[in-house]
Structures are given as structure tokens and as C-alpha cells.
Write a structure and sequence with these properties.
With 256 residues, this protein is α+β, with helices and mostly antiparallel strands. 28% of the residues lie in helices and 17% in strands. It folds into 2 domains: 30-120, 2-Layer Sandwich (Herpes Virus-1); 158-249, Phosphatidylinositol 3-kinase Catalytic Subunit, Chain A, domain 1 (Ubiquitin-like (UB roll)). Component of a PRC1-like complex. Interacts with BMI1/PCGF4, RING1 and RNF2. Interacts with KDM5D. Interacts with CBX4, CBX6, CBX7 and CBX8.
Amino acid sequence: MSSPPLGRTSHEGSANASDSDSEDEPTLPLNQFYPYIRCALCCGFLIDATTITECLHTFCKSCIVKHFFYSNKCPTCSIVVHQTQPLYNIRPDRQLQDIVYKMVPFLEELEREQMCSFYKERGLDVPKPVIVSPPCPAVTKRQKKDNVPQSVFTVPPELDVSLLLEFVGAEEGICNYKPLERRYVRVSGEATVRHVELFIRRKMELSPSCQVDVVCGDHLLDHYQSLKEVQNFVGEDALQDGLLVLHFGLVLPSQS
């Protein structure tokens, strides 16, 4: 980490007008900004400023990563960043890093030189700086209107069957189950009635002793039947506004 310089260099203006304007503005010593541009772990100026998303405290990236090797709490406020993976909740703060480089003379150049020396001493390739992509050409309102997609969310073509699951009730003695909140489901036509049953079991948290009977129209469906087969077999009577309607009930297994 870089240590703070002894003082901030002054720059003289080239025109008298600019000198008079600068005299009207108050000047503050750099050390008054130390709490905002220095890392609390190494006490140097921020390098690769990285902010904790839970509390918004900022540190050098290398400092906070090393800190999280033995702790999952913020070094400043002691809040738990993440129970097991605190590195998930940190983000680079490029705007703050730009401010630090602008406020501290020669800090960016010094850091770049130290980084190059570090890689060269170890025989490694020096990472190239990130190239900012040029701004996109201006788009007219007409072009925007023509380029607007028909739908923000496009349904994958393999999910070609829309289901409406209608619960008709449970046999007496079955009471420990949750209501089915998702009645509308879009699935692949290759899915079978068994897949629908497993979906219902999971969402309603049914016990293994509970049996799920699925009916389409007047037909009790077998587990091996695919939804495409059911739709073709029952025909238009199985559809309601383009949805394949499946009624299901909860029953106790038959005693043999």
C-alpha cells in the first residue's frame, strides 16, 4: 500500500482571471480528507478501492481480502458481512478510486510502477490496462421504436405446454398439506404426469403416504403419459384459453 505524502503540491494558474477565481474558493489541506480516502487496515491511500455492500465501508482490495481470511466481520463496524462467504458481499468502488487518484498527486503513476516492478521481478506478464469501449452511436427515436422486442421475456421453445392445475380436494383424513400457490405452469410437452405429480408433492409438502390422482377431462391419467400425448388424446376439451387443464385430488392409498 502507498503511504500518504507529506504535503499536496500546488499548481499555479496561467491566467490572472483563474488566479482571482481560485482565491475566492477555500483551500483545504489534504489531511482533512484522510478519513475518506485512506484504508483503515493499512492506513495508506486506497488502492483498488473495494466496498462492503452490507455497511458501505471501503478498504483496499488486498487488505479486505486478507482480513476475510480470518474474520467475516467488517473491520470498522463489526457487522457480519456473510456467515460463510464474506467475499460475496464486496464490490469494486471505481468512482472513489478515481477521486483518490485525482486528489493525491502521482499516486496512480507510483502504483503502476510498483505493479510493473512486481511482475517483472517474478518473470510474469504485466497485465494490460482495461480499454474503455467507445460510446455507442446515437440512436434515433424511430430506431428505438423499431428495435423494441416484442416481449421482454422470451419463453424457450421447448416449454411448449401451459398447464392450469386445479385442486379438487383431499380425501378425509388428509389434512397436513400446503395450498398450491402456483397454479399456472409452463413445461415441456415431453414431461410426464409423474413430473406433474412430483411438482405438486414438493409445492404442497405432501407425505409419501398421500396419493395424487391427476385427471384431464373424464380421464384418469397414468404416470407414464407425456403431457403432449394427453393434450392430443383429449383434444380441445382439455384446453381452456390455450391452457391444458389438469384436475388433481389427494387420496389415501387403497388397502389391498
